[in-house]
Structure formats: C-alpha cells, structure tokens
C-alpha cells in the first residue's frame, strides 16, 4: 500500500488524495503540521524529502516521490487522467507548470496567510499583491474555460486536478470567484466526476 | 521550422535553445525585451501566450506551447533526453517542478535584480532572502550530485537542462558556487555534452 505524507490544509496534498481516490488506489496517510517544522526534521529531510515539503508518496519498497504534480504524472500514466495525444500531453504539462509558477504562489499563499497565521501577522501586507497576481492566473483559466469543459482537450485530466485544488478554495484567501462563472461551472463539473472526494472530509 | 519566442537573458529560454541544439532541430528566434512590456501587448497575449511570458515555441502550423519545462518535455519524448523507465520519468518531473517552485524564483530573480535593474533599485532588499532560499535549493542539488553524475539515473536528461540553465550563471546573482564542488563538476560535464551551446553566444 502507498503512504501519503499529507496535510489536510494543503491543496498540493489534496491533489494526490483526489487522484488516488479516483483511480481506486488504496493508501494510508501520515499527517504533518503546516507551521510546526515537522517536515523539516533531520529524519524527514534524510528519508522522505530533502526539500522539506509534503506531499510525498512513499512506495511499498520505501522509495519516495515528492512534488505534487510529479506524483500526479506518475499515477496518471496510461489512465484516462492523462491524454494519449502528444500535443495534449504537453498542454497538460503547460498547465501544471503554470499552476506551480503563476497560480499556487499567490492563490495558495493568500489562503495560508488568512487562515493559518494570526490576524495581526505582518504577512497580511502581502495580500494585495497576491490578489493582483492570483486574479491574473484566474483570468487565464476563465478565458480557457469559457468555451471548453476542461483545461486540455475535451476530457478531465491531471491538469484539472492540479488547478482545481487551490482554485476551488480560493475564497479562503479572499478571492472573489463570483467574477468567474466559467471557473465556477468547471468546479461543479469536477465535483461530479466519479470517485470525487472533497478536500475537507466534513464538506 | 520552429519559431522560438526568445530572450537572450532568460535561462528559461536558454533551456529550449540548448535542447533544440542538442536534438539538431533547426529554429529561428524572435527576441523580446525583459522589462519593456513587449510580452504583454494585446497581440502577444492573444496569439502567443496569455500568461505574457517567454519562452514560447511556435509550431509551423501556428500552435504555440508555453512554459519552458513543458517545451522540454514535448521535444524530449522518445529521445535520449527523457528516460524510458517510469520511475525515472517521475524523477525528471520532480526535479523540473522543484526547479520552477524552489530554485528559479530565487536563483533567477537574484540575477535579474542584480543585472537588469538599476543599482539603486529597492528590489535589492530582496537579495538576502533570495540567497537564503536559493542556497537551500543549491544544497539539495549538491547532495544529489556528490555521488551521481546527473540528476536522474545515470544519464543526462531534461532535468539537468532545466536546472543547469540558471545554476551555471548563478554567480550573476551573487551566489558563491565555490561552495558546491559537485555542482561545478556537473556544470563541466554538461558543457561537454554533444551539441552544447553557451547561454551567451560570445562565451
């Protein structure tokens, strides 16, 4: 069985939980805190991920794979979650690198600051810049989704999973999703896919 | 023929020039400025990349592919620059996502601030933080390369190209590479690979 080194507040970890659920692959989780340094211990750095981050999937033979989108890529190979067409494969990659460079550092970080740090954190000063850059990323998604059901081709793929994770909880970072009807319809479509599980189990 | 929407100062664009050279694929380039807004014109956003960034490869049929590491992935398929083993493929992805999230935003941005902005730019205040995070990324590379010739498996791959681009010019961002003998040896190995071209043509 796979072991997911996990955190319930991490959209990056949720990506992996969602795909494993939709693939019907059983796994257990080990939970880590976000701000308690538990992913930066010498043991974690030596044995799980030298970059000190979750998610990491530990395989039954002990090998560990880090980086959420690399994990999605690994498990999606030869499944319906990754296209067979070479151009569409590259487009999946384009959206996943876009997510990590131009979306997550703003949309996820705003959520982190507003939900995980004290109300008087000086990092609240970052919110206007995070919103400016996060809205720019959301606009690019909205423009694509206005006349397409999914981000690549005609099918739900790991590109959608990668972008869905933090987009569907963007309001926790005080982003206003009412401006983006196509994104909201896409969120609804993803929630209806087989094997869907919510990010927060109580939802 | 392919058209690379390019900038000579961009390590992300250089990744593409290097791989296309090593694959022997002819291409022409269109140059853009880094700070003149030329990648944010309405025409560029509509026709080349809605995210307003280079590099972008334009195919003979007019389709455009953005995100440097997605471009590397596309062209490396079924070549010696991408492994055939599924685990090693995932490891290539892990390093490429690491590069875009944990390396480039620090190592590349320090170079940008110190070489492209005025000496009195207030952004120089970012340098200590960029160095702290950039050195953390370089240490992870050094630890891997201390007993391996390349980042994944035994072979030069697009993971090496992705990390080489900004690492080998890190000193332009005032990073001290003398601390990292394994990285320096790896840089030397890459410079000896067939079809290698330097980032700056005059070098």
UniProtKB/TrEMBL annotation, chains A, B:
Organism domain of life: Bacteria
Gene3D superfamilies from the UniProt entry: 1.20.1050.10, Glutaredoxin
GO molecular function, one term: transferase activity
Domain GST C-terminal positions: 85-203
Domain named GST N-terminal: residues: 1-83
Pfam family, one: GST_N
Keywords from the UniProt entry: Transferase
Family statement: Belongs to the GST superfamily.
Name this protein carries in UniProt: Glutathione S-transferase family protein
Naturally occurring in which organism (per UniProt): Emcibacter nanhaiensis
